[in-house]
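Supplementary Methods S3. Complex input for the D-glutamic acid-bound model.
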Amino acid sequence: MNDKERPIGFFDSGVGGISVLKESLKVLPNEDFVYFGDSLNAPYGIKEVNEVKRLTFNAVDFLLGKGVKAVVIACNTATSAAIDDLRERYKDIPIIGIEPALKPAVEISRGKSIIIMATPMTLAEKKFSNLMKRYNKEVNMIPLPCAGLVELIESGIVEGEQIESYLKDKLKEFMHLDIASIVLGCTHYPFIKNELVKIVGDKTFIIDGSIGTVNQLKRQLNCNSLLNEKKTEGIVTIYSSSTTSCSSTSSNMIDLSYRLLKS
Ligand code: DGL
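Predicted complex, serialized as structure tokens:
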């Protein structure tokens, strides 16, 4: 197998990165993908930074063992904790991260407010405060840590009363503001976008970082001459560190991942 034919590795703490993989299938339909979700150790966003680093290195080693030609860290939390160290260690392979999509949100929200929903770790890390500093003169930025939301999504709950009341409670103190956009700074959150729209209405833009990440992946593959030239549709293989049942709605994490991929 030549390098171009090797698969692309995707990693998240659980099923969240499937939201980025979904976009990748549209942009790179002829590529093969290997996805690893560390559901056994999710959520990452409330752990110690060094622990997330350790888990992320283990996950990348697992993907490299599968012969991947590039790695997408499809997790904002793992990106903020480990991306610099990963690039330092694995110099021979493109490593693409994801971060809260503040730039497009600021462009459409000048003079108004933006809410950034993400895990406590993503919002506490230096990477995010640097990002905030770049834009906070142009808009009113409201970082909103959402502990507990990843757990609901990991257990297969993406709609209904529990998600609705979680979101209403989180957002209630901001409902009087002129919120132009909400940035989904965690790859799990696009799966609850419909519930979010019900609460904030369809005039508020809801933005996530997946398109920017996938475009960056394509650019990196292109400039490293790694784009797959085959004409047939690519294959997706999903691995999870946990295959145990998390709720009555998901028989296991791999089933849930495929279900979300097709949703
Ligand atoms: N999908 C991960 C992210 O983008 C969730 C992190 C977690 O497991 O808490 O941050």
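Residues 103 and 135 are 8 Å apart (CA to CA). Residues 12-14, 16, 42-45, 75-77, 119, 122, 150, 186-188 surround D-glutamic acid (CB under 6 Å).
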